[in-house]
Amino acid sequence: MMMYRYRMTLAEKLALVAIVTCACAAIARASPLDPERYFLVEAEPRAQPEDFLLNDDVWPWHYDIEIKPYLEPEGNKAQFTFDGSAKITVTTQKQNVMQIKLHMARMEISAWSVIRKSDNAVIPTQQEMYDAETEILTLPLSTALQANAEYVLSFTYVGNMDDDMHGFYRSYYWSNGDKVWMGSTQFQQTHARRAFPCFDEPKFKATFQLKINHKTQYNVYSNTPIMASTTQEVGRSLTTFAVTPSMSSYLVAFIVAPYEVNERSGMGILARPQAKNQTDYSLSVGIDLLKALGDWIDYPYNSVPAMTRMYMAAVPDFSAGAMENWGLLTYREANILYRSDDSTSMQQQRIAAVISHEIAHQWFGDLVTCEWWNVTWLNEGFARYYQYYGTALVETDWDLNHQFVVEQLQGVMQMDSLMTTHPMTHPVYTQSQVSGIFDNISYNKGAVTLRMMEHYLGTEKFQTALRAYIKDRAFKTASPSDLFNVLNRYDPNASTFMEPWTVQSGYPLVTVTSHDGGFTLTQKRFLVNEPNHSDQTTWPLPITYATDADGFSNTTPAIHTGSTMEIQMQDASDVKYFILNNQQVGYYRVNYDAILWGKISKALLSEGFGGIHVLNRAQIVDDLFNLARGDVVPYGTALEILEYLKDETEYAPWLAAVNGLTTLSRRIHAEDEKLFTMHILDIFSKAYDTVKFQAPGVSERRVFTYMRQNVLQWACNYGHDECSKAAVAEFDRYQKNPSVKVHPDLRQVVYCEGIRKGSKEQFEFLWNQYMTTNMATEQILILQGLGCASTSELITVMLDAIASPHVRSQDKSNAFTYVINNPYTLPHVSRYLQQHHAIWATAHGSYLNVASAFNNVLARLKSDSERDAISTFIEANKNTLGQAAYDSIKKGLEDYETNKQFTMRNRGEISEFLDKKMNGGAATMLANLTLIGGLLMLVLARW
Questions:
Q1: Is the pTM of this model over 0.85?
Q2: 380 is in an annotated binding site
Q3: Backbone φ and ψ of 613, nearest 5°
Q4: Is 357 annotated as a binding residue?
Q5: What span, in angstroms and rounded, lies between the C-alpha atoms of 100 and 885?
Q6: Would you tell me how many other CB atoms lie within 10 Å of the CB of residue 550?
Q7: Is 530 tagged catalytic?
Q8: If DSSP codes are grouped into helix, strand and coil, which group holds residue 259?
């Protein structure tokens, strides 16, 4: 079967898939595969917000759960269903409780009862009620519950193993040409209720004991070790797991699969048998991280009696990147399976970092849990912080502290500079709102705020405070006040500094003006699209500064409140420069007056960049791109100062530059593309000569390898002749001899350029590698390469592939992004979506995903005719799209107009700079600090 399939051409295979998919479109279930993506276009809920939350009348203490899955039809049992029984021990401290409310979803309950535990007395009940929107089951009682007595709620039910990667769901992998089905779980945030009736909110902590009745050819795994396994019937075993610690329902996990375990020192990696040889690194780094983090927090993992071992499982289909289920962490395969000969250096780092993130959750999330999802940052902010600083305890040579600043701090600043942002602590009620709060504000900004607090307190006090916090709240839930109260033990002003960053949206721009006696600092909220806003929000600012190379080491801030402050300095006009926010510890942008920008520019162009710290160089790069974007600094000025990048040799500033240039490239006027291309090739020229088109050396710094990947990608994308020839030659060599693979750290650029400059033959070759590889990390690299297709025919084939089952649901969104990041594809993608919207909706689960696809195209388009075609399409197909998808695309069309206005408004500045530079004027302009100063006087006038 498999051999026959590979003899078909790719186009034939995908055409067949398209026919089948189209035929199924009318009957496909409409719920999206990943509802988290559609938070912004959620239909208005019918229920009141508070109705989505359970009352606190009844609290669970213990669950006994038995699950019997059917991964194939058995008698009258349908495939992908499961029988379930659940007994929940509950109690109440209230009088006259006449009903019990809890959650359930996607199941049919055949029987339920309430029994008083002390005497087994049956409590008379009435007809249950169920609200499908809130997913709350109400159990009315004829007799009131007694306060402080224990009751047992018993349920018998049938559940469904869906394929949407939520609840107890089905997944599969291929083995010797056969599809092997398996079951896995993903319960965060609100999907435990799909597997068993439960009080599905984090505050309702309880212990759980799980039994799984499974076919004997399957192995089963859960949060705790197996206590016993008995034969219940022919071909089936009943496996009983140890009782869990007291924990939230979303942390329960179990897997039913013919997996194998690579186990050592109390840790095991679970994987399909063919992937067991990819688990050594994750096992090794996992063991090291579990000990290092336990030591750092001074609370060893096995201090919890039930946690005698840690399992980490690689799941073929997984909606999130990974999940912190206590004792059974689950991952996408690409985030845990690694081979040095088939995975990039960055993929290895991501694996270590994701493992560190999930292990950190064993304390920050599992042992101590956010009380409700409105303070998700108490879980995710800590985990994101340790994703970098925990990994750095084990992998010490990766400059993770530098990467944190660009990826996390600068990354979240983009979202947090929009009016649509929200505070870290933010009310949520509905399932979609809860999903939406798991965003960069909770993760990145949460971590950034913790880093600010660490530098405010000092690392030793910060560590001591967090150790106390964990011990104080162990096995309980936490609110921000619990954290603030502990921090205040070590500094009475800690919460005064930290809390405003958690409850206020956005962040400030600090403008620095110089005078003879020092510097004046003024703060105002930075809103990138609204420079003239009247928002008066202020923050307690952590202020540090440097006037020479030695000054950047001081990251202990002085806290300033109020909109304006003065820094007194004798002979201030004589300083080499004045740069605010050492190593970008503080969460704010900085703009300077003309004189100070001139000094910074001069220093950047001098030997050793004037001693400016590498993180502050990255800060300057990121700030300039975004201050120009926000109409605070003229683009011409920003681009002139950023010419210093031609001599930059460090990864962090280049990563900041790549982020800024990516955004700018989408706003360059179509008629200025050639000039912009020449500009890109110019500023990357020395960097290319520095990194060279070569595999990394044995002793090469890890971040230098990352820098090479970025430089080669940009050079080749913009037509660097040497880069392109080298990449194509390596692709041709690989195609002729696939047994000798391309070095993993060169694959992204080699695959992309080979496909861009190649034909259907090269595309078919690489697609076949995708279909036959055993490595999830390699599949990602191949999808990136295939996204570089440059003919209409191959773009169509690629989009057909994304819509087909050959690209797993978890990878479809990224695969689409790889395609549309290639500007040539945009008109072809737009027409494809218009012609095949039904197939796309079916493949992705919802017309909301069609809307998302159109909006991602519109965000990159520079063609009014293509915009008009999309507008005409949605008006003609409004009923098919549905109101939510239609409204979403209408908003995308409005954003297109906003982007177009931005391009026209800034075109003069940008094109003038590019034109002068290409005619040899850039050097003169850079040397002319008076001109820079004159331009920057406009900055102060605008601000």
A1: yes
A2: yes
A3: -60, 145
A4: yes
A5: 37
A6: 9
A7: no
A8: coil
